[in-house]
Design goal:
elongated; 3 domains; 16 strands; three-stranded antiparallel β-sheet; Helix Hairpins; HSP40/DNAj peptide-binding domain; alpha+beta
Length: 383
């Protein structure tokens, strides 16, 4: 049967670049690979045909000979007699590595990994809820997690006491078996040991040969002061046990902090609103501002207006890395008494007689009114 033109096989022009040829071959190899088309002889032949074409066109010297003399110029390298060696041309290992990620195979080209060796244990996640106070001061708490641990009966080997696992006779401990498929040496997971490289004739009765059992484990977690919602703590070695002697994974504790009824947090800064009597705003004085460490006396200047923000430095949240604290911003809100005694009303009426009358001066309507809430405006002010 007449051999097809190699450029035609890959679907590229004779002037195609090396990268175009490689891309075309990769696409055909993935499309027609036998693992994707089990039992399909036509796909297998197309796969072999594409590999043969790429073996020639990917090599500069062989491509030049092919362009000049056709199939006759490269018959020694790509003849039907099987002289083609896929390991000799540049780029083949890279392609096989990529195909191995897709089809789950490897071989003698750098795409395989031994599966029978030690494997690191899985990481675990635990979502922990704490109060705002615990976040501000730090705390220590105990959590209980279910996790896979090495079986005490067999020490994690999976074999019954007095026995031990043996090397798999089919894959010889590699966890993979290799076989010739067309031009390729392909490696697949060993069907006898399922990739572990070991077989167990007498399984442990406790773990049923797995080597690990599920236990509830209580772990103490130290929460640093200043931690915020979404931050996480990594406890190395507190994840699930590894297999075949591999190291354990890690436990990631993701923190969720309850909101405070009075304070609002933004980074390390805290924000709050405090009611102040209008006489204190007018005459000046001192008010008590709640903080994380108790009430703090703060001076209110004479003539302070509602909406004024007082800043208490170093009274915010601590930095989780121990680098100081943020500030506390207290916004003043004028407080109007709802009930007045007879004497209080009389005095206020006298005050009203001597105060200047309010004059309303309408202002032009702004195109973009400031609809931000008080919290956002305070942040902008002290940004």
């Amino acid at each position: 049967m007449r051999k097809r033109d190699y450029y035609e096989v890959l679907g590229v022009a004779r002037s195609a670049s090396d990268s175009d040829i490689k891309s075309a071959y990769r696409k055909l190899a993935m499309q027609h690979h036998p693992d994707r088309n089990p039992g399909n002889k036509a796909a297998e032949e197309k796969f072999k045909e594409a590999a043969e074409a790429y073996a020639i066109l990917a090599d500069a010297q062989k491509r030049a000979a092919y362009d000049r003399f056709g199939h006759a110029g490269v018959s020694a390298a790509a003849g039907a007699g099987g002289g083609f060696d896929p390991t000799v041309f540049t780029g083949f290992e890279d392609i096989l590595g990529g195909l191995g990620d897709i089809f789950g195979f490897g071989g003698a080209f750098g795409g395989s990994r031994r599966r029978g060796g030690p494997q690191r244990g899985a990481d675990l996640r635990y979502d922990l809820e704490i109060s705002f106070k615990e976040s501000a001061r730090g705390t220590e708490t105990a959590i209980q997690i279910p996790r896979q641990e090495n079986c005490d009966t067999c020490g994690g080997s999976g074999a019954a006491p007095g026995s031990s696992p043996s090397v798999c006779s089919q894959c010889r401990g590699q966890g993979q078996v290799r076989f010739q498929q067309g031009f390729f040496t392909v490696a697949r997971t060993c069907p006898q040991c399922h990739g572990t490289g070991r077989t167990i004739s007498k399984p442990c009765q406790t773990c049923r040969g797995v080597g690990r059992v599920t236990r509830d484990r209580k772990i103490t977690v130290k929460i640093p002061a200043g931690i915020a919602t979404g931050q996480q703590l990594r406890l190395q070695g507190e994840g699930e046990a590894g297999s075949a002697g591999g190291p354990p994974g890690s436990l990631f504790v993701v923190v969720h902090v309850h909101e405070h009824e009075f304070f609002r947090r933004d980074g390390l800064n805290l924000f709050c609103e405090i009611p102040v009597n209008f006489t204190t705003l007018s005459l000046g004085g001192e008010v008590q501002v709640p903080t994380l460490d108790g009430s703090e006396s703060v001076k209110v200047p004479e003539g302070t207006q509602t909406g004024t923000t007082l800043r208490l430095r170093g009274k915010g949240m601590p930095d989780v890395n121990g680098r100081g604290k943020g500030d506390l911003f207290a916004t003043v809100q004028g407080q109007t008494p709802k009930k007045l005694t007879k004497d209080q009303r009389h005095l206020l009426e006298q005050l009203a007689q001597v105060l200047p009358k309010e004059k309303f001066e309408p202002r032009a309507r702004e195109d973009e009114p400031d609809e931000r809430n008080l919290f956002d405006r305070v942040k902008d002010m002290f940004g």
